[in-house]
Amino acid sequence: MAAVPEPLRGWSRANSIGGEDSSLDEPASVMHRVAFIGRTSTADLQDPTLSIPRQYSSCEVALPDDAILVASFYDIESGRKDLAVRGYSDAHEQFAIPVFRDGGIQDLLVEAERSGRRFDYVICESIERISRRTHTGTNIEHRLERVGVRLLAADEPFTLTSASHHRKQKVATQVLTRRVKQGVAEFYVLEMLEKSWDGFAVHTEAGFNVGKACYGYQAKLVQHPVPAKRAKGQKKTRLEPDIVRVPVVQTIFRWRCGERLSYQEIADRLNTDLVSNPAPVPVNPESAVGHWTWSSVRGILTNPKYTGHMVWNRRGRKSNQNRVNPVSEWVWSPQPVHEAIIDIEMFLAAQEIAAETERSRSAPGLNPHPQTKRSYFFRSYLRCDHCGRRMFGKTRKVAAYYVCAPKKDYTLPGHPTGGSFFVREADLLRHLNTFLNSHVFGQYRRSLLEDNSAEANAKQERERRTSTLRKGIVEAGAKMKRLVRSLELVDEPDREFIADVNERRAELRKEQAKMQAELEELEAAEVSALNPELIELLPIGYICAEEMPDSLARTLFDALRLEVRYSKSRHRVTYRVTLVADTVAAAKRAAAEALVAGEAHNGAAGRGGPALSLVTERDHRGPICSVPPAGIEPAT
């Protein structure tokens, strides 16, 4: 800096310009106060006991003689986190780091913006230690600059000047260099993330598992495909069934799809026999609770790996705060890569049940809320036929109603004018009794179903064709054996004879494979075919729905898969039950208990009931009946 002319210095002192510390005087020697800021990534990738001291030492060496470190701030966390959630990690407590810690990045910013702070400069080893994102890094730098604190980096050239220096510090080149480094640092991280993503995607498509094997499977170690890593003893893992836990997984899906049990109801059943149903163990065994919980059941029912496909990126561990990612972002193996425990159709059925019962309490009785005064019989079963939403219960005076009241901006076209409407519970119950006692438990229920002659003929044709195919497969196998024996009868078979035998054997094998494929198709069709005989497995009798205890009613309706839909415009309520082989036994048990109460009620009150015109339909899973509600007058 050029010296100030002596006449000007004297004139300044004489006129008290700037006082005793006039800016025209040469700056006095001062000690600059500097705070250290450091950061390492997650503890499993770096050693903070070495990284933090190295960063501190680098900053200390880079400072001039008239500067001293007076405070130390550092964190152990990812540099890609948003500033709002930075500096709150307690990971540093797990290590004996030989550098005193005054706090993290948040503590640094708070002190910098406070009067009486201990420092005027902040120094880091390199600018990417502040953040791996340019936006966050420049935001921190701007906040410090706004309160007069300059951010330095040990690997960048800098000079420190006192506040009395009359010439502005030149930082243009330093800013350009810093911004380029920040951009390069962010580019490097993004490039590594993209390459890592692609690597995990290929890893998944090849059938290799990431992390702990899910319940029902165990990890099967295989050689690493990379020779260098294989030489070091590194391995990859695939999934193979755990014979002890496979039946548990299958039972969970069967209960969910067959009896439509809630997560907690399944957990309660499993907990009755923890020997046959061993509880899952989390990644950290110390956090194991030793029994089944609703969340552990949900984790199994929502895991698509049980279909034989390998799936990755179901959760955003860092990018989405460990929440479930959209299904469109999941990475699937194109084909099954390990043995499936359940088929994909059952998995999808379980997901549909979750969508139908979402935010609906499955337990019987009153809601545990202290202000609850009553329960509603059709809770979770009744839906609006116009928009598909569940109708919720509401009491007017002493009567129970169900209402569909969509928000104004969410009303679908065709929804009744005015948006909301009511229907009385008593009317729904009366017609439900008619439906159950005629179409489900009535003596003539089978005849009420539509004509099934075409279906019966198709079934007979499938049975005939199945029998023919099985005989053909056996005969083809016998013919191939006879061909092999024919070679033994010829002492010296020539080449042409052997060729004919091989050609004929290949033809038989091809025919046998074709018949086997057709047989499998017929057997699959038989499983999903209409089966009206299922309804004959239910008992015959009289049921009075309102006389059933809430727990029994819900057990019965869940087993029957009862669906009730109300249409305001057509003034019509539709009842539907679905029977499948897995639920008939449960429905039969619940119905037998309900019939006892129903017969007692019917004996006292008589079998009377409203005259209704019934319209029956058919479904591949069981009977459907639409009952037009005669005389229902919804509340207005």
TrEMBL record:
GO terms for molecular function: DNA binding; DNA strand exchange activity. It comes from the Bacteria. SUPFAM superfamilies: Resolvase-like. Residues 231-360 form the Recombinase domain. Residues 498-528 form a coiled coil. Keywords: Coiled coil. PROSITE patterns: RECOMBINASE_DNA_BIND. InterPro entries: DNA_bind_recomb_sf, DNA_bind_recombinase_dom, Resolv_N, Resolvase-like_N_sf, SSR_resolvase. Pfam families: Recombinase (PF07508). The keyword Plastid does not apply. CDD domains: Ser_Recombinase (cd00338). This is Recombinase family protein.
